[in-house]
Amino acid sequence: MTHPNDMRDLLSDPGSRTCRWRWRSGASRFGALAVASVAWFGPAQGDLVAQERPGALGGALTGRVVDAATTEGIAGVEVRILETALGTLTDSRGAFRIDPIRAGTLRVRFSRIGYAERTETIEVAVGQVLAVTASLGQEPVELPPLTVAVRSGVLDRAGFYERRAQGMRGHFLERRDIEDRRPDAVTDLFRRMSGIRVIHGGIYGSQVLVNQRVTFSDSSAGCEPSIWLDGIRSTMPTPDNIKVEELEGIEVYTGANAPGRFNDICGVIVLWTRQRRTAG
Prior knowledge:
Elements: E1 6-12, E2 19-28, E3 31-40, H1 48-51, E4 58-67, E5 78-81, E6 87-89, E7 95-102, E8 104-111, E9 118-124, E10 129-136, H2 153-158, H3 160-165, E11 171-174, H4 175-181, E12 196-199, E13 207-210, E14 226-229, E15 232-234, E16 247-253, E17 268-273
Parallel strand pairs: 4-10, 14-17
Antiparallel strand pairs: 1-2, 2-3, 3-10, 4-7, 5-6, 5-8, 8-9, 11-16, 12-13, 14-15, 16-17
């Protein structure tokens, strides 16, 4: 709360009307607060403030919020009378008005990001208009640390990260994910994926199957997904035709939920190599 260090009363024009000005000013660690109150006891002409007579609620609060260092108006400051629903935002010049307000002791809060919040207590008499000039001191805003994610240029150009960010229902493995799993063959990467079965052996090597019921509790072997290599549909019989060290990323979609051109009723395995290869 600001402690007044200056108070003056002026009684003027006793013949036609009575006007009493009360001026209070002071300073706090948040900046200065100046309050000019105007109370009219007779008819007034030609004065905009004097002509505005608040109703039974008491009075009005008007004023301006300025930067303590530059004295320039601050836009977007929330001015709120605590313990009430009354409040407003300052305009581009830092000006505001709350009208009407109840008479009595009120606590007014001024707040905006980047400035120290301040709360002041004011006294409002019936029929009184308080003109407030409040200054706010800037304070540093603590920001979260900068987050840097290193992306693969190959996968970025292929739309891999965009599809993952869009929440596409699939499995996404980047190069670091592949290295963390330490597979001996590409098909080893599918072991931890739900709804996927790897059948080892056979004429053409290990085979990857998708069960569209997600589990393999039934006797069906599953559905064989199509394989795409660097964005082109491939005829290779098994993903193991590609060496693990050649892979930059993998996308796996079970069922007919693959995006765009990759869509296939049995599911899709999309392989992205570190150096673009020709699909075989």
